Amino acid sequence: MQKILDLKLGHSVANIGPTLRGDPEGVHQIRIALRESRANLKLFEKHLDARAVGRFDVELRRFGIIFGAARDWEVFCLETLPSAMADLPAERLWDLHPPAEVERQLAHATVEEILRGAEFTALLLGMAVWADAAVEQPRMVGDKRMGKRLAHLSPSLLDRVARKAKKCGRHAGRLSPEDLRRLRKSLKMLFYDVENLSDPYRRRAVKTYLNRCAKLGAVLGVATDSAVTQLLALKLATDNRPDLARPVDALARWSLTRGRKTLESLNGLLHKFHDAPTFWS
Fold first, then answer.
1. Domain boundaries, the chain
2. How remote is the C-alpha of 147 from its chain's centroid?
3. Global pTM value
4. What is the domain class of 1-142 according to CATH?
5. Which is higher by pLDDT, 29 or 271?
């Protein structure tokens, strides 16, 4: 656990500079690192101090929401709007860009304030010190004896995460947007955990499993991004900007159609995911 967590914390630190310089990829990478750190803690939570894990999880989730909001506006401005404008040249979608860009800059300013503040730094340092100290604690996964048992623990750990993902994917035809978001989140957790515990297993088997997860995740990504696009678009059509109602409606309909079309392949991918043998069993 210590090695994995240190890598994720280092990934966060490495992307602070690019984020402060305005690089959208920096925000994206820090968000991923925070999410992967949460996944790592949850994976080993039964073998760790519950109070410490709970405290770190709350903070990681709080900052993850802030970085997630900034990332959503970046995707909206830099990816979604250009794609929609290419598909709907007759609509005045460009009118949505100036107010959306204001929202993007505000979200990025919040991220900058977080990165320059003491709380985020304290979280990263606190987790690093705690992970290092875990090496000396006999009940921690960082303990050398526990490290030797990791190969034996991996199957049960991965089984637990995989069961959760499969449970979220039941009744594919009746999944609400919130259900799809929850499924995507659990699938990402599974993806991260498989990557982190892949060393003892054959690379080809791991790659095949990860590819299956990635294909399903890509479909879920388009579907959940569609829901986010509609929510963000609606925020732009305020009482002060009634002229944006028509382009907002056009964008929302475009996004809804795109999401529904993508979901046509969801049932087949979910069946393959449910039926596929797990390489760690």
1. 1-142, 150-281
2. 27
3. 0.86
4. mainly alpha
5. 29
